[in-house]
Amino acid sequence: MNSLKEKKALLKKLEGAYTTCFDCGREYGVYSVGCSSVRTGECDVCGKESRVTEARDFGYFSKQIRQLKKEIKDEAKLS
Ligand SMILES: [Zn+2]
Fold first, then answer.
1. Could you tell me the distance, in angstroms and rounded to a whole number, from the CA of residue 79 to the centre of ligand 1?
2. Which of 11, 19, 36, 62 sits CB 3.0–4.6 Å from 68 for a disulfide?
3. Average of per-residue pLDDT across 34-51
4. By three-state DSSP, how is residue 60 classified?
5. Nearest-angstrom CA–CA distance, 68 and 74
């Protein structure tokens, strides 16, 4: 996948993201609610202007965040 530096940057973004576009949401999270507040705005993850919704609607990317933290920890052990 990505380098350790990229993983750390992505982790920081995902943890701090309040809004997300649907592309990033589907890539890093799991869609979890039926009624989201979709609007046009800037995605906190990729920075693109798009149709965005709250990170909450994708479970705050918790699965991906857990995965990234594990990978970062494992790589830190190796180096
Ligand atoms: Zn995005």
1. 31
2. 11
3. 91
4. helix
5. 10
Place of tokens 């350790």: 4
d(CA 44, CA 54): 10
Q: What distance in angstroms lies between residue 76's CA and the mean position of ligand 1's atoms?
A: 28
Ligand 1 (single-atom ion) residues, CB below 5 Å: 21, 24, 43, 45-46
Q: Is the separation of the CB atoms in 12 and 4 below 8 Å?
A: no
pLDDT in tens, 7-42: 999 999 999 999 999 999 999 999 887 667 899 999
Distance separating alpha carbons of residues 62 and 55, to the nearest angstrom: 10
Distance (angstroms) between ligand 1 centre and the Cα of 55 equals 11
Which pLDDT does position 64 carry in this prediction?
Answer: 96
